[in-house]
């Protein structure tokens, strides 16, 4: 019964994606995309590391925003996790994490300007919602038995520390380390909206055709992510957290009157500002819905469905790269496994926004760069997790090899966890799909960015609210599908 439901659900998703392909704009419109790709590859092979001050500043600011933003988000998330049983807390956390970091950055930039606080809050607020949910799940999975045997009269804090928290600590540390990697990606991408991180210098270097500098920036970024476990040690972490706030830079001073005006005037719908009341508000909302919201929702859903299935197919192709059942345990197998691990590190470490930006420069404006970017990043993450899970499966001595081992021994056993991971990433893929509109793809992010550029913050805030509600709806659908198919996965299993 479980298998038949799983097969039907998978086929339905594939058929829906094929139907979406017929409606999507996936053409390559660049004059000579292969020549552009060749120049980028030459830049990666011959990077220019001579601009030491330029590159050093980019790396330091990227690290600083990541550490401060993730640190603040983790602290707030832990406090919220202790209150996560309250509906108001769960609803608030679901809302703030449904809005992408770049949307938060665009909001804060309107009244804080190019101040480091805008970048820090853009990371910290959605991460607080994510941390709260995952920390709560990890704490709930701890064994309740120790809490029943502690001495009577022990305080709530002591009981928490010596029972649930002590059991969950390894999982909390592992997940927080993974989120720091995500924070580095988020910090780099903030450069595309003006923050002085790697993305800012990458965009300007690309615009000027300096591919050797682009290559240097990309290699530095991959180096940071790939060596994260080597230089982020528990003993050094307090030092990083203390130093990071002083490395953010000063930026422009905050004009507090702009903050006040934003909340009291700018985001108030135009008909209400002009005194037209509800009579003017209804047609204003109707025009916004027809002209911008509905087309944005349609394209967001279209692109998300194609990217979801493409992610799943790519993950199923990639997981053997890190599975010992295919690489082997001998010296040559360990080399192949290390190479496969390196490939997946590069794929999952490249932010979707960054990769989509590069592909748009190479292929021209269409949905294709977004689909490929989303599939590569998320397929790399899921492929890594499924490959690691396959290593825990014991095969009999006479198990087949090659394609038969893949098709008949391992994939059927891994398909349930794989599908759970895919559904878990569904809402994340939609968040990224919406934000890719800032690059010119006609998703909801395109209309949000256009409204902000036109200084129509009231329209932008409503479109961001619609984006958040859409993400929450997809998250609820994915959770119900996981429950219906009896697929169990929590975010604590992330790398």
UniProtKB/TrEMBL annotation:
<dbReference type="GO" id="GO:0005886">
    <property type="term" value="C:plasma membrane"/>
</dbReference>
<keyword id="KW-1133">Transmembrane helix</keyword>
<dbReference type="InterPro" id="IPR035906">
    <property type="entry name" value="MetI-like_sf"/>
</dbReference>
<feature type="transmembrane region" description="Helical">
    <location>
        <begin position="239"/>
        <end position="256"/>
    </location>
</feature>
<keyword id="KW-0813">Transport</keyword>
<feature type="transmembrane region" description="Helical">
    <location>
        <begin position="460"/>
        <end position="478"/>
    </location>
</feature>
<feature type="transmembrane region" description="Helical">
    <location>
        <begin position="297"/>
        <end position="319"/>
    </location>
</feature>
<keyword id="KW-1003">Cell membrane</keyword>
<feature type="transmembrane region" description="Helical">
    <location>
        <begin position="428"/>
        <end position="448"/>
    </location>
</feature>
<protein>
    <submittedName>
        <fullName>ABC transporter permease</fullName>
    </submittedName>
</protein>
<feature type="signal peptide">
    <location>
        <begin position="1"/>
        <end position="24"/>
    </location>
</feature>
<feature type="transmembrane region" description="Helical">
    <location>
        <begin position="54"/>
        <end position="82"/>
    </location>
</feature>
<feature type="transmembrane region" description="Helical">
    <location>
        <begin position="102"/>
        <end position="129"/>
    </location>
</feature>
<keyword id="KW-0812">Transmembrane</keyword>
<keyword id="KW-0472">Membrane</keyword>
<feature type="transmembrane region" description="Helical">
    <location>
        <begin position="214"/>
        <end position="232"/>
    </location>
</feature>
<keyword id="KW-0732">Signal</keyword>
């Amino acid at each position: 019964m479980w298998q038949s439901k799983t097969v039907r659900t998978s086929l339905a998703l594939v058929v829906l994606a094929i139907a979406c392909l017929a409606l999507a704009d996936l053409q390559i419109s660049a004059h000579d995309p292969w020549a552009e790709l060749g120049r980028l590859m030459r830049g990666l092979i011959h990077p220019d590391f001579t601009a030491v001050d330029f590159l050093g500043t980019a790396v330091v600011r990227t690290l600083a925003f990541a550490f401060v933003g993730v640190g603040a988000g983790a602290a707030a998330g832990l406090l919220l996790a202790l209150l996560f049983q309250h509906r108001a807390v769960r609803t608030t956390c679901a809302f703030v994490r449904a809005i992408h970091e770049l949307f938060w950055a665009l909001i804060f930039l309107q009244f804080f300007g190019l101040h480091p606080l805008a970048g820090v809050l853009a990371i910290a607020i959605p991460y607080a919602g994510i941390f709260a949910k995952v920390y709560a799940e990890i704490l709930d999975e701890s064994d309740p038995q120790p809490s029943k045997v502690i001495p009577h009269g022990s305080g709530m804090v002591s009981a928490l520390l010596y029972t649930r928290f002590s059991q969950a600590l390894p999982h909390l540390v592992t997940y927080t380390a993974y989120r720091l990697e995500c924070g580095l990606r988020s910090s780099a991408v903030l450069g595309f909206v003006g923050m002085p991180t790697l993305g800012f210098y990458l965009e300007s270097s690309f615009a000027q055709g300096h591919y050797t500098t682009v290559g240097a920036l990309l290699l530095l970024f991959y180096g940071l992510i790939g060596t994260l476990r080597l230089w982020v040690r528990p003993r050094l972490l307090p030092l990083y957290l203390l130093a990071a706030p002083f490395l953010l830079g000063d930026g422009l001073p905050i004009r507090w009157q702009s903050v006040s005006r934003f909340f009291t005037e700018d985001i108030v719908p135009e008909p209400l500002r002009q005194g037209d009341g509800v009579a003017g508000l209804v047609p204003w909302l109707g025009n916004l819905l027809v002209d911008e919201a509905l087309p944005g929702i349609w394209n967001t859903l279209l692109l998300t469905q194609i990217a979801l299935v493409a992610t799943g197919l790519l993950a199923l192709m990639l997981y053997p790269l890190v599975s010992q059942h295919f690489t082997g345990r001998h010296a040559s197998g360990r080399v192949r496994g290390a190479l496969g691990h390196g490939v997946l590190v590069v794929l999952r470490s490249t932010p979707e926004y960054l990769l989509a930006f590069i592909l748009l420069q190479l292929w021209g404006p269409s949905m294709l760069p977004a689909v490929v970017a989303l599939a590569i990043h998320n397929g790399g993450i899921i492929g890594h997790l499924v490959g690691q899970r396959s290593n825990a499966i014991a095969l009999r001595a006479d198990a087949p090899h090659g394609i038969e081992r893949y098709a008949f021994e391992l994939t059927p056993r891994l398909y349930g966890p794989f599908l759970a991971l895919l559904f878990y990433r569904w809402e994340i893929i939609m968040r990224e799909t919406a934000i890719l509109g800032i690059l010119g793809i006609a998703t909801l992010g395109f209309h949000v960015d256009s409204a902000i550029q036109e200084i129509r913050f009231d329209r932008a805030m409503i479109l961001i609210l619609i984006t958040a509600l859409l993400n929450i709806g997809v998250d609820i659908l994915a959770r119900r599908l996981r429950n219906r198919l009896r697929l169990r996965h929590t975010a604590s299993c992330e790398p």
